[in-house]
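FW: tagging you since you asked about this chain on Friday. Here's the raw sequence from the shared folder, copied in full. Didn't touch anything.
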Amino acid sequence: MSLTRLYPQVAVLAAAAVSLIVLCVAPAGAQPVLVVSINDTMIVNDSTSVWVDVFLTNTSDSVAGFEMTIMLDNPDLIEFFDTGGDPTIDTAGTLISGWSLVSTNYLGGSSTFKIAALASYYPLPPVQCIAPRTEPGLLFRMKMGVFPYTPGRLPDRNIILMINGGLDWTAFSNEIGTLIGTTTIIDTTYHYWVCTHWQGDTCLEWEQIPWPEGADSTSMEIKPMTILDTALTHYDDGLVRVVPECHGECGDANGDGLVNIADAVYIITYVFRGGLPPVEDKCADANNDYSVNVGDAIYLVNYVFRGYTAPECSPHW
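HL: got it, structure written out here
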């Protein structure tokens, strides 16, 4: 006869056991062994493309291969540049320059980009892996296409390039095939059974139940799993900011080549009455707060009638 039939509390104790047993974790305060970061980039709104740099720091293991998936949170402004059906990257002078395999692809349209790379593989001659390094090195550069600029879209000009950190999407391996910056856990699942047909102390028919109470038998399923150790691996997303460019006079909202009270009226009409947007957003940002609003109209009134400092549009918008 089963233990749980003789001692029902065994099933209860089994259910109370920890379901995930961690075999190996990074100690508190551990330093990351792998850092991948996408460089923040700023471009003006009349650009048609932009190159974005991706950096790698690997302090403990050599990198012999990797795959990485990068997604856009705002595909209405930029996309991964398409050349002959494939995203465009540049590996010249990077950490993977000369590698035997570098492959890129779109996943679900031009807003998700995947790259896979191997230093070398048989029967090709061996190629140098990426040796451990304590300073960021340029891993590769990717080209982004910029959609035509539409005036009046200031709040939407920040695009986040996100690294999908799931191991099915992004992973780095050393030369013996071990994933870097990961840990192993044991996923333990308990199954409970009740006997529906006893013959003496022998059960002839079993039925699985979802809870331990009343169970006549308990089985345990153990599955080792490899997961990303976020204490050892950091994926830093990047930002592309599409900024307007002022080709004329700063403060000239209506595009007539002058800065006067008409520009303040133009901004008020745009903000409060749904009028036309400024000819160039950056030129209309008189108070340099990275937006076109009533504050710019007030600034222009003070400039025209009270001798305030002339508008000066920041080049770092």
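FW: The radius of gyration is 30 Å.
HL: agreed, and Helices lie at 3-6, 9-16, 261-273, 281-284, 294-306.
FW: great, closing this out.
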